[in-house]
Design a protein that fits this description.
Length: 427
């Protein structure tokens, strides 16, 4: 498979807590108008909210649950970012993800800053009524720190349309002005946008399509492996098959994956997973553990699960020539260096998975205007924005002989830094 003929850039600069901050630091040092003081502003967080939320369980017992909301930078517009419910959520993770959202919004040039939220709990341990009480308590405790012109949450890991509906309803009890626009990712029947559910996967599909065009790759003749079979992974797989005639040879969940070099029936696999809660027993495939799955033979790998799944071992052994980051931060900093040394093409998440925040922007606009668009209109607008963003990143990469990731961060950093300078913040 051909490569994009990129040089082999190295991550330079200080030791970083996480991969995204490493990428940020290495690029920021090379932008002439970002001095030490402005770099401190870009590195800082405007607000960090840590909570201990009391929750009364159905059996009457009272427990407390840790929860967070971090707001990174709003120089270009209101804070924007999802909130997740997962047992491994930490303040450090939420900080990293909030930071990433700032650059993602800037790369695709929508008027949002970056934020993220999280609740430290396995949602499978709660009943539906307990989960609703938890989401409402989280909303109540955030108070005026969120709002349609302040900070607009969205779905993330283990949250979805119903979660957003509860959030909106709780917020609306004490806020009447533009309350519908406080969150995005709502059900279509409650102000949600057509196309929002599939948006992140569709954006990844468009990114893959544009890279394939540039490299003159016939996707019907490639082996595509997708880690993660939730909202992002499923829709990316489905759309790659339906619209690009691509061949999906494997999909996985946290419990394991399935693989067939001749291709798998994505919809049938998803139906099986939805019915059984597992891919176990799906016919005519090889079943693999999560550890084995990422080493399976493929040409294109789309990690769409949690951050950090593509580590040094995977980067060293995978024979994928193209990696499309469907998840946030799936490639570690050191793994990224290995992939670049091997001349792999890596489409960074701040570009490739930006479809979700783009259509969240559309939902926000529609809510504020009370004027709604068709599914087809949403898809066309999404395609235009993400494809334009890809062209800008690609051209920056070619012009400066740097990786796609470095090019994306350069564009994002320059836009946010310029907004800070124009507004006079940090001086």
């Amino acid at each position: 498979m051909p490569t994009m003929n990129l040089p082999i850039p190295k991550i330079e600069g200080p030791t970083c807590f996480d991969a995204e901050s490493c990428f940020f630091q290495s690029v920021a040092q090379k932008i002439s108008f970002i001095d030490e003081n402005l770099l401190k502003v870009l590195n800082s967080f405007r607000r960090e909210i840590s909570m201990e939320i009391p929750l009364r369980k159905d059996n009457g017992t009272l427990i407390t649950i840790k929860a967070y909301r971090v707001q990174h930078n709003n120089a270009r517009g209101p804070y924007k970012g999802g909130f997740r419910i997962h047992q491994n959520v930490t303040l450090e993770e939420v900080r990293m993800l909030a930071n990433l959202m700032t650059w993602k919004g800037a790369v695709v040039n929508i008027p949002f800053g970056g934020a993220k939220g999280g609740i430290t709990l396995d949602p499978k341990t709660l009943t539906r009524t307990e989960l609703e009480r938890l989401v409402r308590a989280y909303t109540y405790n955030l108070g005026d720190n969120v709002g349609p012109h302040t900070d607009i949450p969205a779905p993330d890991v283990n949250t979805g349309a119903q979660t957003m509906a509860w959030f909106y309803d709780e917020y609306a009890k004490s806020h009447s002005t533009d309350a519908l626009a406080v969150v995005t990712g709502k059900p279509v029947g409650l102000g949600g946008s057509e196309g929002r559910e599939e948006a992140t996967g569709r954006g990844a599909m468009y990114t893959l399509r544009e890279i394939a065009k540039d490299l003159k790759i016939d996707l019907s003749q490639t082996k595509i492996l997708i880690e993660g079979f939730g909202n992002v992974g499923y829709h990316a797989a489905r759309l790659i098959v339906e619209e690009l005639k691509g061949k999906i040879v494997g999909v996985s969940t946290s419990k394991g994956g399935i693989y067939n070099p001749k291709g798998i029936d994505v919809k049938a696999a998803h139906d099986h997973y939805s019915k059984n809660g597992s891919l176990k027993g799906f016919p005519n495939v090889d079943h693999m553990t999560p550890g084995e799955f990422l080493f399976a033979d493929c040409d294109i790998l789309i990690p769409s699960a949690l951050e950090g799944s593509i580590d040094n071992k995977v980067a060293d052994k995978t024979n994928a020539q193209i990696i499309i980051e469907g998840a946030n931060g799936p490639v570690t900093a050191s793994a990224n260096e290995i992939l670049l040394d091997k001349r792999k093409v890596v489409a960074p998440g701040i570009l490739a998975n930006a479809g979700g925040v783009i259509v969240s922007y559309f939902e926000w606009v529609q809510n504020l205007q009370q004027f709604y668009w068709s599914h087809e209109e949403v898809n066309k607008k999404l395609e235009k924005i993400i494809c334009n963003a890809y062209v800008n990143v690609r051209d920056q990469s070619r012009k400066n002989k740097i990786s796609l990731r470095q090019a994306a961060y350069t564009i994002g950093l320059e836009r946010v830094a310029q907004a800070c300078i124009l507004r006079g913040t940090g001086f």
